[in-house]
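re: that chain from earlier
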Amino acid sequence: MKNNVVRSPLFYVGDKYKIINEIKQYFPDEIHCFVEPFVGGGSVFMNVDATDFLLNDLDKNIIAIHQMLCESAVNPTIFYQKVDAVVKQYGLSCSYKEDIVPEELKREFVKTYYARFNKLGYEKMRSDYNQSKDRSTFILYMLLIYGFNRMIRFNKSGDFNLPVGNVDLNQNTIKALNDYFCLTEIKNPRWYNLDFEDFINQVTLTPDDLVYLAPPLFDNV
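^ sequence. v structure.
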């Protein structure tokens, strides 16, 4: 891994992955408790050494995915079995295992062949997710992996509404997942889904702790 930096498997918009080394220049050499009120995809905490990790985000879906992945870290084999089952069920490409996209599709749509190949299967998976009474966080993560720009977005009716992306489950995704499984097993983070002020107010800090504040970006502010 370049400069020993690992990337979050959420591929979060605004991810600090590319600038983590610049950020860490301002961190103390030793940190007891690392506190992050806006954890997002988690690339910062993944690349920080500390004794304890208290991680928060107001987005309940982001926290649910983190918690699901942390639980999966106990037995990644079961997680990947579920991945294989969903890939097979919806007929999705999975290039980390096998390249099944037809060559004629690659020639016709040189830059968008993954989107063309996965479109119908992705839309069926999205429809099944939106119609489910008990929406699966695992399926939401799969939608993230195959969706446009790997984002999470819901419409006013509460339905996931991103179109298919020109990506699939590739080697970079698997590496990010395996790094996450390994690191969260070691770090054992504690997750919170609160307004950042409520979160901060319930944390008792010491001089050896660090609060990393990187608030989300908003348009027209």
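The longest strand covers residues 52-56.
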